[in-house]
Design a protein that fits this description.
The complex is a heterodimer of chains A (478) and B (95).
Chain A (H helix, E strand, L loop, with lengths): L4 H17 L4 H26 L2 E4 L10 E4 L1 H24 L3 H23 L3 H19 L5 H32 L4 H7 L4 H18 L8 H7 L2 H26 L6 H24 L3 H25 L4 H35 L10 H4 L1 H15 L5 H15 L4 H24 L13 H20 L2 H7 L4
Antiparallel strand pairs in A: 1-2
Helix pairs in contact in A: 1-2, 1-4, 2-3, 2-4, 3-4, 3-10, 3-13, 3-18, 4-5, 4-10, 5-6, 5-10, 6-8, 6-9, 8-10, 9-10, 9-12, 10-12, 10-13, 11-12, 11-17, 12-13, 12-17, 13-15, 13-16, 13-18, 15-17, 15-18, 16-17, 16-18
Chain B lengths: L3 H22 L3 H22 L10 H34 L1
The chains are: A mainly alpha (478), B mainly alpha (95).
Chain lengths: 478, 95
């Protein structure tokens, strides 16, 4: 099998340069690059599933001095989700940006974001991860500022400063790790890290930095303005992928490399913050007046669910129960990624067609844009966690793990969060229906409406009915 | 015994903490950008300090390489922050 790891980084990077040089063909180049990168991601996923962990050493320099890229089940799955979300959003973006001046600034940054996401997911050492975190942060901020209005600039600048603070704390932790263990290679570290003051301090610094970037309550303050004021395709990717990338790093650190260092109290603290995020985020989503703000607060809540898994995974001994819960965590993250990006794209369609996204004034949207309203309903199914969505499987595992480890508190939180999610979904749908007659053709604007439909259908039907390979793939680990 | 090595290490931590404190407490965005740079200097100084391997051995080159990369990243990030801040000030003046 050909090793496609390097393609996943090299293709979007060369695409970014090409769109910068050949502005006239930027959209065509970007879509072409997107298709090629997605095919590479699929080949990589297949290779990892059939042959196990893939490794690539750039320029032949071995890890330690050179840069090693690695793909296991988790990173291959996440880079596949990245590809699906980014490709669908690229198609949407080609119709979304009408002005050429914005478009020519958009594509290079967009592909650079794709490149840094893949590099982050596939990096095998801590310092390289720091660099990719910064690249991701810079391209995300630049994209978020494309709105150009005062509010967007303000939100983007705050996003940048929070991101910089987060990466500085992460780098301080990386420095301590190197001082303590003399290596930054993830595989070597997971063998060598032992509990002690250095490991605790390093993990604390890196965790606080990453929690800031992942927007876990109460460090979420920057997320709603930044995600709600960015252009729709950018919001989709910020909410679905960028916060997930830093969450992926937290997973690697807490559940793998530093798993012997993590104490139950620390894991419970993350769980409690996650619970607070579920309740606060869902409540704010219910109270939001604008659709985009609703979607952004719902991201705060959905990220909270992911953190509920940490105390459970810390309590479960290695074995089938823990593997099942781990799969639940990943499928919940994947479902949210697809559903939330679809939701933001659908909101973008409504915003452009109606000129606003005020929930109270949605009257008749279901008749004017039936396919888009359907996409919102599908994403609602995934956000609530109804069957057959992937989130149903994820929440099922979450509840099963809570019962089997006797941590009842999380069950209450999950129930309240689910009810609130149902409430904010039905609030939107309730306002969307009017008394006008339905049009003959449900999809009126193909390039704008199909991406949201495909993403949300993938989340609600695809992942729910064909989610089993996720558990298989997670067995392939570093 | 307080050797030069420790003096560097402790100063690095102090610079980091001062930068962090200023970044969290100040309202002015420009001051925050400067504070984050000061904090970064602390982290870089710590990286330089851990490269020390005793008076007779050559310093470890890897942390030095990391600092160089880190500086490049910090410069680019600061440039972006300053550009955004200038555009923001212009927009606010227009309003």
């Amino acid at each position: 099998m050909i090793n496609t790891i390097i393609w996943l980084v090299a293709m979007p990077l060369s695409g970014a340069l090409a769109t910068l040089l050949l502005k006239r063909y930027a959209t065509a180049i970007a879509i072409g690059t997107g298709i090629a990168t997605s095919i590479s991601a699929a080949i990589l996923l297949y290779a990892v599933a059939t042959e196990g962990v893939m490794l690539y050493e750039i320029g032949g320099w071995s890890a330690g001095l050179g840069i090693a890229l690695r793909a296991d089940g988790l990173s291959a799955l996440l880079s596949m989700m990245t590809a699906i979300v980014l490709l669908a959003s690229s198609i949407y973006a080609s119709a979304y940006f009408k002005e050429n001046s914005v478009r020519s600034r958009f594509w290079p940054l967009w592909l650079l974001l794709w490149c840094s996401l893949n590099a982050l997911l596939l990096s095998g050492d801590l310092f390289n991860l720091y660099v990719t975190l910064e690249l991701l942060g810079l391209s995300a901020v630049a994209l978020a500022s494309l709105g150009g209005k005062t509010a967007a600039l303000q939100a983007a600048l705050r996003y940048l400063l929070v991101g910089l603070l987060g990466s500085m704390l992460f780098l301080a932790g990386v420095t301590l790790v190197y001082a303590g263990y003399g290596t930054l290679d993830l595989a070597a570290l997971s063998r060598e890290v032992t509990a002690g003051p250095i490991a605790w301090t390093a993990l604390t610094l890196m965790t606080v930095g990453l929690l800031l970037k992942t927007a876990l309550f109460p460090l979420h303050f920057w997320l709603p303005p930044a995600h709600a004021s960015a252009p729709a395709p950018v919001s989709a990717v910020l909410s679905a992928l960028v916060v997930k990338a830093t969450f992926y790093l937290l997973m690697r650190l807490w559940l793998d490399i530093f798993s012997d260092v993590v104490t139950p109290i620390a894991a419970n603290l993350l769980g409690i913050l996650g619970a607070a995020a579920v309740l606060w985020g869902s409540w704010q989503a219910l109270r939001a007046e604008r659709l985009k703000l609703l979607a952004a607060y719902s991201t705060v809540a959905q990220l909270g669910y992911l953190f509920l898994f940490f105390p459970l995974l810390a309590a479960l001994p290695a074995g089938p129960a823990r593997d099942a819960a781990m799969g639940g965590l990943v499928i919940l993250a994947l479902t949210h990624g697809l559903a939330k990006s679809g939701l933001f794209l659908a909101i973008g369609v409504i915003q452009q067609r109606s000129g606003h996204d005020t929930i109270r004034d949605l009257d008749g949207t279901a008749q004017r844009l039936p396919a888009t309203t359907f996409a919102i309903a599908l994403s609602g199914i995934a956000l609530i966690g109804l069957p057959p969505s992937g989130a149903f499987l994820g929440k099922w595992q979450l509840l099963a793990a809570s019962f089997s480890s006797g941590q009842w508190l999380w069950v209450v939180v999950i129930m309240i969060g689910t009810l609130l999610a149902a409430a904010y979904t039905f609030r939107v749908l309730g306002h969307a229906f009017g008394k006008q007659p339905y049009p003959r053709r449900p999809v009126s604007i193909a390039t704008e409406e199909w991406p949201a439909l495909i993403l949300t259908a993938f989340a609600t039907i695809g992942l729910g009915l064909a989610g089993a390979p996720v558990w298989q793939l997670l067995k392939v680990s570093l | 015994m307080l050797t030069a090595h420790w003096l560097y290490g402790i100063s690095a931590c102090l610079i980091m903490i001062f930068g962090l404190r200023a970044a969290l407490l100040h309202d002015s965005l420009l001051l925050r950008i400067i504070a984050l740079n000061i904090m970064g200097t602390g982290v870089f100084m710590m990286l330089i300090t851990i490269a020390y391997r005793g008076p007779d051995a050559a310093p470890d080159p890897i942390p030095h390489a990391l600092v160089l990369t880190g500086i490049v990243v910090a410069v680019s990030a600061t440039a972006l922050a300053l550009t955004l801040l200038r555009r923001l000030t212009e927009e606010q003046d227009n309003d």
